[in-house]
Sequence to fold (197 residues):
Amino acid sequence: MPKMNLSHFEASLLFALFTSIVLGIITKRTDRERFRYAAYCFGCFLAAIFGLSWLMYLGHG
Amino acid sequence: MADTQNEALPPVSKWAPVVALAWIVPGGGHFLLKRPGRGALLAASVAAMFLLGLMMRGALFSPQTGDILTTVIYVGGFIGNFMSGIFYFLAVWLGYSQADVAGHVHDYGTKFLVAAGLLNILAMVDAFEIATGKKE
Fold:
């Protein structure tokens, strides 16, 4: 099996993508709601990734 | 009190096979319940998460007990790995063995392998709710 080297950002993005898909599927009742909720979760993950990254960068000095 | 608490659970024979299949084959419970679209997306998500974990050379947990932190991490991690179903069994049967080494890629891989199982638990709960009529 090939070895994969991902950066922190790439790994976080992939994690966010697949987790958002599953959360969208299991929590809502119509396809439209599922898609919107998955997109919302993905957006929240992205906001957390960028927000916490900047926080760590600025906090590090 | 909500009325839902008083509702009787349907017979085990109605939902147990669905939940068991959902564990062994991620997304399989939804296929059995004739929800192929959702089943395919769940299967693809869990499979992708597990395969990425393997390709990043994540470590599989084996249960260990000791102090509370060791127990939570190793038993919890093992349960997370184990709940990936056929992917976990195939990885073990085919001899996948990766030591827990330092490095962010390995570390992400370990987390991806556990997260695949946790996502499959969510899929199993969803299949259970569909099988028992709590959800469409």
Q: What stands out?
A: Chain A touches chain B through 18 residues (CB under 8 Å).
